[in-house]
Q: What sequence folds into this?
C-alpha cells in the first residue's frame, strides 16, 4: 500500500550480522553528479525516451520564444539524411560573449549547464517576458543526450560556431566576419544528432514533428515555418493569417451549432492581480454530434494533458452559459446544469500566455500554475456572456444543448436502483453532506479536527464535496475484530458515511451502497497529520480493502508553507504554497534565479489545517483543478508480505521488530520534528 508519506517494504528487518556484511557506507560512498551527468544517468526524468522528438522540440521552442518576444519571422527545420535535425531561426542569436560571472561564453553555458538561460529574468526589460522553454533546462538536456550538437550563431555582424558531444565542448567557440551581403545577418542554427543509446528509437517521428510545426505556425500568425526531410524529399511550409479559428475549423467534426466564438484577453499594465500581458486567446465551437477537437498551449508549448488553463476555460464557459440560461429562462424545472453538461460538446483551441508557467514534470504536458484558472476564467466569462446576449439565438442553442446533456445524465442516474429506505442507516450528525447524487463525482473528506472541518465546510463545493470532521487520533484497528469496530464512534461514523460495511479481502461485499466516488484523507502536513493518515490507511487496508482495490481512497496533500513574494517588475505580488521543506527550498532557489531578493520573501508555516482560510484550503487542497490528490493503491509486494509488514508496523506486540526495522531503515525517513 502506498500513500503520500511512506512506502512499505516487504523485506524483513535485517539483523546485525547481515548489516555488517554489507558494503561500507562512508564519506567516499557519496557521489556528486556534476554538469549534465544527472541527465545522462536518468534521462527519463527530463524527457521522453520513446524517440528524440522532445529534445528537438526544446530547440524549436527556443526559436519560437524569440518570435514570441517580437524578434524573428521564420523557423526552418531540416531532417538530414543521417538522422540529424537542424533548427534555424532569424532571431537575435544566442549571446556569445563571456558571462560576467562565469567567465566563459554564454552560448557554452546555455548548452552545458542545467538551470541557466535567459528566461529566469521576469523583470521589466528582461530578455523574455513570456517564454515556453524550460527556463534553462531544455537545450542543455538536448545537448546531454546527443552524440553531437553543433551551434551556429549570427550576431553582431559575425558568424560564431561551437560544437559539443555528450554535453561536452569538443570544438571551442570560433568567430569570423559575415559578408555585408550575406543572406543571414542574425539568428541561430542548432543541429542535433540524438544519441541512440538513450532512446527506444533514434529516429524522430516526422508525422509528429510536422504536427508540432504546423501548430507553431497557427499560433504565431504571420510566421513562416518550414519542414524539409532529406531522405524522402518531403517539403512543407506553413504561414497562417487566420490563426486559431482557421485551425479549429479544419479539425472539428460535425456541423457547427453556432459560428465560432473567437476572442482574447490580456492583463493591462495597471492590473492588480496579473502581470502585464498575461492572458489568453481562444476559439470555441459547439457541435451536437461527432468527435470534439481540443488543443491547448501555454506560451506556444502544446499541453497535451491540459491543466489549469483548460480548467479556467471550462469555468469561464460554464459560468457564462449558466448565467445566460438562468437569465433567459432556458432551464426546465428540476434541471441543474453542471460544468460537464455545458462543456461536453465544446471543441476549442486555447493559447495562454503565462509569465512564469509551472508545468508538471520536465516535459511540460500539463500546466500546474494555480493562478491560470482565475486568469483564463476572468477573461473568458465576460466576453462569452456578452457574445451570448448579443446573439441570443446562439445562446439559446447552446443552452438547449447543455440542457439535453443534463437530461441524459439524469436519465442515466435514474437507472441506478436506489437502496430501500429501511436499509439506510442514519447518517452521522457531524457529517456535512453534498447535494449531488452522482456517486462517481461525489467526494468525502475525512478531516482532522473540528477547526479544520469548519474551514473545509466553508471552502468546499457543496454540490459534490462532503465533510466529516474527526476528533483526535483514530483507533488503531489493525488487531480489532470486525464485530467490535463500531464500538469506536469515529470508525462507526466513517463506515456509515461511506455506505459500505467493513469486510475482509476475500469477503463478498456489495459496493452498491457506496455514497462517494472518492474518499479523501485530509490531515495536517506535519508528523501528527502523518500519524492520522497511517491510522486511517490501516483502517481501510484492514477492514475496507475493496475500496482501495477499486481506487476510491485518496490522500489530500495540503501545503506546509506559504511564501508571500512582493512585486517584481511586471509581476505583481504573489502567494506561493509548498508541500514540504524540499519544495520550499526548491521554490526559494527558483525565485533567486528569477532575480527575487529571497531575504524579503515572507515565509509562513501552517501549524495545521485550522490555520488556513476557507479560500486557501479550497485553492490548495480541495479544488480539483489545482489540488494535488494522491490515489492510494496496493504496492508491488504480494499480499502476504504486505500483511506481514503492516503487522510489524501496527501490531501491539511487535515493538522489538519495529525497533529493528527503524535501525535498518531510519536513515531513509524524512523527519519533521
A:
Amino acid at each position: 500500500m502506498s500513500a503520500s508519506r511512506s512506502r512499505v517494504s516487504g523485506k524483513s528487518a535485517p539483523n546485525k550480522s547481515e548489516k555488517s556484511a554489507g558494503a561500507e557506507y562512508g564519506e567516499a560512498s557519496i557521489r556528486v553528479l556534476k554538469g549534465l551527468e544527472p541527465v545522462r544517468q536518468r534521462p527519463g526524468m527530463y524527457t521522453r525516451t520513446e524517440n528524440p522528438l522532445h529534445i528537438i522540440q526544446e530547440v524549436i521552442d527556443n526559436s519560437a520564444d524569440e518570435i514570441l518576444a517580437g524578434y524573428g519571422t521564420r523557423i526552418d527545420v531540416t531532417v538530414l539524411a543521417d538522422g540529424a535535425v537542424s533548427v534555424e531561426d532569424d532571431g537575435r542569436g544566442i549571446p556569445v560573449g563571456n558571462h560576467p560571472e562565469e567567465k566563459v561564453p554564454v552560448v557554452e553555458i546555455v548548452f552545458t549547464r542545467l538551470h541557466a538561460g535567459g528566461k529566469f529574468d521576469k523583470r521589466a526589460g528582461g530578455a523574455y517576458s513570456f517564454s515556453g522553454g524550460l527556463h534553462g533546462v531544455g537545450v542543455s538536456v538536448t545537448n546531454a543526450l546527443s552524440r553531437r550538437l553543433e551551434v551556429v550563431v549570427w550576431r553582431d555582424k559575425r558568424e560564431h560556431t561551437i560544437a559539443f558531444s555528450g554535453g561536452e565542448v569538443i570544438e571551442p567557440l570560433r568567430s569570423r566576419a559575415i559578408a555585408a551581403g550575406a543572406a543571414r545577418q542574425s539568428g541561430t542554427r542548432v543541429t542535433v544528432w540524438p544519441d541512440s543509446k538513450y532512446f527506444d528509437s533514434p529516429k524522430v517521428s516526422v508525422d509528429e514533428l510536422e504536427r508540432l510545426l504546423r501548430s507553431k505556425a497557427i499560433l504565431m500568425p504571420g510566421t513562416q515555418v518550414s519542414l524539409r526531410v532529406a531522405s524522402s524529399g518531403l517539403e512543407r511550409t506553413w504561414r497562417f493569417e487566420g490563426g486559431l479559428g482557421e485551425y479549429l475549423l479544419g479539425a472539428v467534426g460535425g456541423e457547427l451549432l453556432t459560428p465560432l466564438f473567437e476572442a482574447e484577453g490580456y492583463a493591462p499594465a495597471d492590473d492588480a492581480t496579473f502581470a502585464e500581458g498575461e492572458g489568453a486567446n481562444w476559439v470555441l465551437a459547439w457541435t451536437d454530434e461527432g468527435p470534439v477537437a481540443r488543443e491547448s498551449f501555454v506560451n506556444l508549448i502544446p499541453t497535451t494533458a491540459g491543466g489549469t488553463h483548460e480548467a479556467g476555460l471550462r469555468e469561464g464557459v460554464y459560468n457564462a452559459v449558466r448565467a445566460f440560461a438562468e437569465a433567459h429562462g432556458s432551464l426546465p424545472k428540476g434541471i441543474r446544469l453542471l460544468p460537464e453538461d455545458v462543456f461536453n460538446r465544446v471543441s476549442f483551441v486555447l493559447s495562454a500566455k503565462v509569465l512564469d508557467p509551472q508545468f508538471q514534470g520536465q516535459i511540460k504536458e500539463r500546466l500546474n500554475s494555480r493562478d491560470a484558472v482565475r486568469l483564463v476564467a476572468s477573461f473568458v466569462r465576460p466576453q462569452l456572456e456578452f457574445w451570448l446576449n448579443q446573439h441570443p439565438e446562439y445562446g439559446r442553442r447552446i443552452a438547449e444543448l447543455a440542457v439535453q446533456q443534463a437530461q441524459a445524465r439524469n436519465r442515466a442516474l435514474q437507472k441506478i436502483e436506489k437502496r430501500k429506505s429501511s436499509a439506510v442507516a442514519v447518517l452521522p450528525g457531524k457529517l456535512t453532506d453534498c447535494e449531488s447524487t452522482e456517486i462517481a463525482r461525489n467526494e468525502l473528506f475525512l478531516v482532522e479536527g473540528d477547526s479544520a472541518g469548519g474551514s473545509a465546510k466553508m471552502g468546499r463545493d457543496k454540490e459534490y464535496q462532503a465533510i466529516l470532521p474527526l476528533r483526535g487520533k483514530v483507533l488503531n484497528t489493525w488487531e480489532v475484530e470486525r464485530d467490535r469496530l463500531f464500538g469506536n464512534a469515529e470508525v462507526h461514523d466513517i463506515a456509515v458515511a461511506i455506505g459500505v460495511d467493513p469486510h475482509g479481502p476475500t469477503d463478498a461485499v456489495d459496493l452498491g451502497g457506496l455514497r462517494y466516488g472518492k474518499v479523501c484523507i485530509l490531515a495536517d502536513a506535519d508528523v501528527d497529520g502523518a500519524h492520522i493518515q497511517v491510522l486511517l490507511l490501516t483502517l481501510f487496508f484492514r477492514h475496507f480493502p475493496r475500496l482501495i482495490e477499486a481506487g476510491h481512497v485518496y490522500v489530500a496533500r495540503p501545503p506546509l508553507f506559504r511564501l508571500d513574494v512582493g512585486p517584481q517588475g511586471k509581476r505583481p505580488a504573489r502567494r506561493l504554497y509548498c508541500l514540504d521543506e524540499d519544495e520550499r527550498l526548491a521554490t526559494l532557489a527558483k525565485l533567486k534565479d528569477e532575480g527575487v531578493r529571497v531575504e524579503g520573501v515572507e515565509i509562513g508555516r501552517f501549524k495545521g489545517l485550522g490555520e488556513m482560510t476557507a479560500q486557501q484550503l479550497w485553492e490548495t487542497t480541495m479544488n480539483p483543478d489545482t489540488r494535488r490528490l494522491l490515489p492510494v493503491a496496493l504496492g508491488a509486494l504480494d499480499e502476504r508480505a504486505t500483511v506481514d509488514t503492516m503487522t510489524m508496523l501496527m501490531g501491539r506486540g511487535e515493538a522489538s521488530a519495529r525497533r529493528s526495522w527503524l535501525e535498518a531503515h531510519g536513515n531513509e525517513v524524512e523527519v519533521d520534528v
Notes: The chain has 19 helices and 21 strands. The chain has a mean pLDDT of 84.
